[in-house]
Write a structure and sequence with these properties.
The complex is a heterodimer of chains A (about 270) and B (about 160). Chain A is an alpha+beta fold and about 270 residues long. Chain A has two domains: about 220 residues, Thrombin, subunit H; about 40 residues. Chain A has four helices and twelve strands. In chain A, the strands form two sheets. A six-stranded antiparallel barrel of chain A has the order 1-2-5-4-3-12. Chain A has a six-stranded antiparallel β-barrel with strand order 6-7-8-11-10-9. Chain B has one domain. The chains are: A alpha+beta (about 270), B mainly alpha (about 160). At the A-B interface, helix 1 and helix 2 of A face helix 1, helix 3, helix 4 and helix 5 of B.
């Protein structure tokens, strides 16, 4: 009897999204579990910071200062480019200017199931994170939020076997879809035309098609292309840019649109 | 009515759930023993009159909620496991340690097979027989865990 109930739950869970609100509620309730199991790690980090020698700190400090200087110089450049870009867009009467707010979140847990590349982060609806919010680290896209609780959310990584993201080659804007493989270090481009111009070393950016990920964030680098005349399509292997199991802090990219549009987007994502 | 110290069962279940989401290096995840399965076998073999499939089902639902897996996966797997443990608790008690170890391996293996079946249903890639690793690590853990838990339960007179 209970077996039947469990089986029914499984079927409902897999084939419908009726349980989504419940799951989001529960995500908030179970975050203490992740918080507790994360404690040894946190204590370790804290101890590591407290027990650092003076020389190390000085060295790190000067290194960071140099880095800040470099980044500031680059962001100045960026400001002028941005202004120019806005002006050009206005000239073209394009209304597509989305303001993005970036929120730093901490990873407090990873899915215990190795078949599932899911992270738990410590930001939720209270902080503006919602269903579909893109998550990235300093070097590239990591994934998107699939369950948002009040103060924690679950993030599906782009390497999960059930995930796919529309991408574009930086060099020539060729479009493709990068699928997760279930391997933390590989994505795959399948069904490429045999003649498409993709090479080893090409950088892939998110293309923004599909409306879920913002355009222009680095996704990965092509490491090999297999063109086999016997097959109808070429295939490429991609190494993701984001460090899937190294990062401790991640960035949640929150788009600030006007509310009506934002709600629309929310509903669209929810019904998928 | 006398105190029966049932809270100890709840404490062990909480501990098992914590261990179930304990962060591990990625490559070790394949070997994480199924602590809840071990607990269910232990408690059902110890007190088959008062605990049964329902208990296992509740533990399973809790594990599903905590780990965020497809709701019902662990509930179904642990309910099946509990059913077999209930059928065989008399034999399990009489087994010598080596036999117990083998038997736990088979029981947790059944648990893993059910879980793997749900994975397949959900469209996750099912890589070979790797899903049986937790059955082996769980079985190896059993000879350490069972006497210790038994001692604690005996001291506290859990009934």
């Amino acid at each position: 009897m209970l077996g039947l109930v469990a089986a029914a739950l499984i079927v409902i869970n897999i084939y419908t999204d009726w349980l989504q609100p419940l799951r989001e509620r529960v995500t908030g309730l179970v975050s203490p579990f992740y918080w507790i199991t994360d404690t040894p790690d946190r204590v370790g980090n804290w101890a590591g910071e407290q027990l650092r020698s003076r020389e190390e700190l000085l060295e790190e400090n000067s290194r960071l200062k140099r880095q800040v200087l470099l980044l500031e110089q680059r962001s100045q450049l960026l400001a002028s480019v941005k202004a120019e870009n806005t002006q050009l867009k206005e000239l073209m009467n394009s209304a597509d200017s989305v303001d993005e707010r970036v929120l730093v979140a901490q990873i407090i847990g990873v899915s215990p199931d190795p078949l599932e590349h899911v992270l738990v982060i410590d930001k939720g609806r209270d902080d503006g994170v919602g269903l579909g919010t893109p998550i990235m680290d300093a070097s590239g896209l990591l994934g998107q939020v699939i369950e948002a609780g009040d103060s924690s959310s679950r993030v599906l990584l782009i390497t999960d076997a059930s995930h796919a993201i529309p991408v574009q080659v930086l060099r020539n804007s060729v479009r493709a879809v990068a699928e997760g493989t279930g391997d933390l270090y590989r994505l795959k481009l399948r069904h490429l035309a045999n003649t498409s111009d993709i090479r080893e070393g090409d950088l892939l950016l998110s293309s923004g098609l599909g409306g879920r990920f913002p355009a222009g964030y680095p996704v990965g680098e092509v490491i090999s292309v297999r063109r086999d005349p016997g097959h109808a399509f070429a295939e490429a292997e991609v190494q993701p840019r984001g460090r899937m199991n190294r990062s401790r802090f991640v960035l949640a990219v929150i788009e600030e649109r006007d509310t009506a549009q934002g709600n629309d987007r929310e509903r669209d994502l929810g019904s998928e | 009515m006398e105190a029966n110290n049932r809270w100890f069962i709840a404490v062990t279940v909480l501990l098992a759930l914590l261990l179930a989401v304990m962060p591990l290096p990625y490559n070790w995840l394949w070997f994480r023993p199924s602590f809840t399965a071990l607990l269910v076998i232990f408690w059902i073999t110890r007190m088959p009159q008062s605990l049964g499939v329902g208990f296992a089902w509740m533990v399973g639902i809790l594990e599903d909620l905590v780990t965020g897996s497809v709701l019902g996966t662990h509930a179904l797997a642990l309910a099946v496991l509990a059913y077999f443990s209930l059928l065989t608790y008399q034999r399990t008690r009489a087994f010598n340690p080596a036999q117990q170890l083998m038997w736990v391996f088979i029981l947790v293996g059944i648990n893993q097979v059910v879980g793997n079946w749900v994975h397949g249903l959900a469209g996750k890639p099912v890589p070979g027989l790797t899903f049986l690793w937790p059955a082996i690590t769980s079985a190896l853990l059993w000879p350490w865990m069972a006497p210790w838990l038994g001692l604690m339960a005996g001291r506290l007179q859990v009934r």
